[in-house]
Amino acid sequence: MLRVLKIEGQDRPVAVCDLCHDRIADAAEGRFYWATNEKGELVEKGRILFLHQRCSKSFEKGNHHLDWCQLPLEYLPILLGDTLNLDWNAARKRTDDGGHKEHT
Ligand SMILES: [Zn+2]
């Protein structure tokens, strides 16, 4: 799951393993999962789960009722950036210039 944690005094979004609930601190340590049915149709409204590599086997053993798709976690920001039509350079500049939380 995605959560916000306080990191060096700043509120920052982080990926948390849906099995052990520890933060995934390095993209190379994680994968993201989503489920399909036997027809390849998305289920659970396309919900994304985050897992450490080390937790993947335990998760898969305990969740046979769905067909799980997965990709390395490092793909997620790139693929999400594509679906958000993200201008990476502009977004990086705005984040570096502040990245401060806004209250509503
Ligand atoms: Zn884990």
Can you tell me about this structure?
The protein has 104 residues and is of the alpha+beta class. It has one domain. The chain contains 3 helices and 5 strands; from the N terminus they run E-E-E-E-H-E-H-H. It is globular. The two termini are 23 Å apart. The mean pLDDT is 92. The structure holds zinc ion. Zinc ion binds next to strand 4.
In short:
The chain has three helices and five strands, in the order E-E-E-E-H-E-H-H. The chain is α+β, with helices and mostly antiparallel strands and 104 residues long.
Record keyword descriptors for this entry.
single chain; 104 residues; alpha+beta; three-stranded antiparallel β-sheet; two-stranded antiparallel ribbon; globular; binds zinc ion
Q: Biggest sheet, strands in spatial order? A: 4-3-5
Distance separating the two termini: 23 Å
Unreliable spans are: none
Gross morphology: globular
SS field, number of helical segments: 3
Count of distinct strands: 5
Task: Please give the structural blueprint.
Layout: E1 2-7, E2 10-15, E3 30-36, E4 49-52, H1 53-62, E5 67-72, H2 75-83, H3 88-97
Antiparallel strand pairs: 1-2, 3-4, 3-5
The structure holds zinc ion.
Zinc ion (ZN) is lined by residues 17, 19-20, 22, 51-52, 55.
